[in-house]
Specification:
49% helix; globular; 2 domains; N-acetylmuramoyl_amidase_3; 6-stranded mixed β-sheet; two-stranded antiparallel ribbon; Aminopeptidase; transmembrane helix; alpha/beta; transmembrane
Length: 318
């Protein structure tokens, strides 16, 4: 019985030991697989997280590129359609805004009497050089003649007067002419009296020069003499107007400007009660200047300079 029982116990012990080994081995395998699965899950989660992060970055970059493309497309549309949304047109180039120069525009009411020098037939009668003077002067001479064009001075001065008057009127200046035709008989006193009776703000007399020397040339502006007893009341304003005209004319490089000449021997000045100036536009006895004075472009440019000077004076007096 003992021997048999011991054998049985031995076999049972071996069985239990073997079962324990099997149980331990199963537990090891179970937990090892579970750990592997957990590790795999963690790796997968990490990969998913990384993938999501990468996808998010790419999405942001794609959105940024899309926004840039949209902006570029919008800019392109503005340039091409010019905002019309129809036919493509080139975007207009920007130009600087030009502000009109107001310096040569009249700032107040102003009356100018323009006297075209001479007339078709001279009047060789005489008249006092000034009020109460014993000295006599010819009422109106015949003037000079173009050495090349053959044009008489009285025709040139009337043409010039009408052009000058037109320029001034466009700038708001009121203009009166002493004559608008060549067939008149007006002495120098008569011409001054037109300005006096109209209470003109300025009398401007237009002439052309002549000389025995054909090389002499240039524009001159005559103004009353400083110590002339007849023109004391108008000397300063007359000189100011003359200076403005000279200054503006000097801007024209095509014109030779000789400057200002003071004269006390001209009855047209001495009888004037309003500021007066006389422009000798050039020498008709100089071939080149004679041609220039008959050139419409040259003459208009010159008279525009003279008009600029007159308006400068008008604004100075405002």
């Amino acid at each position: 019985m003992s021997s048999k029982t011991g054998g049985i116990r031995t076999r049972i012990g071996i069985g239990i030991g073997f079962a324990s080994v099997i149980l331990l081995l199963g537990s090891f395998l179970f937990f090892h697989q579970a750990g592997a699965k957990e590790h795999t899950k963690k790796n997968n989660a990490s990969q998913v997280k990384s993938s999501v992060a990468g996808t998010g970055t790419k999405a942001v970059e794609d959105e940024k590129k899309e926004a840039e493309n949209t902006s570029a497309a919008a800019d392109s549309t503005t340039a091409v359609t010019n905002g019309a949304g129809n036919a493509p047109t080139e975007e207009p180039k920007k130009t600087d805004s030009v502000t009109p120069d107001q310096s040569n525009q009249l700032q107040k009411e102003f009356l100018v009497v323009i006297d075209p020098g001479h007339q078709e037939k001279a009047n060789l009668g005489t008249e006092p050089v000034g009020p109460g003077a014993s000295e006599l002067k010819t009422k109106v001479t015949g003037g000079t003649t173009g050495v090349v064009t053959g044009k008489p001075e009285y025709k040139l001065t009337l043409d010039a007067a009408l052009i000058l008057g037109g320029i001034l009127e466009k700038r708001g200046v009121k203009v009166i002419y002493t004559r608008t035709t060549n067939q008149v008989n007006l002495s120098n006193i008569d011409r001054a009296e037109v300005a006096n009776q109209q209470h003109a703000d300025l009398l401007i007399r237009l002439h052309a020069d002549g000389s025995d020397d054909q090389n002499v040339r240039g524009l001159s502006v005559l103004t009353p003499a400083q110590n002339d007893p007849y023109t004391k009341g108008i000397f300063e304003d007359s000189l100011k107007a003359s200076q403005f005209i000279v200054d503006e004319t000097k801007k024209n490089t095509a014109v030779t400007v000789n400057g200002i000449s003071y004269r006390g021997d001209l009855s047209g000045f001495n009888w004037s009660k309003v500021p007066s100036t006389l422009v000798e536009m050039g020498y008709m006895t100089n071939p080149a200047e004679d041609r220039s004075l008959s050139d419409p472009v040259y003459l208009k440019n010159l008279l525009t300079n003279i008009a600029d000077g007159i308006v400068d004076y008008a604004n100075y007096k405002k």
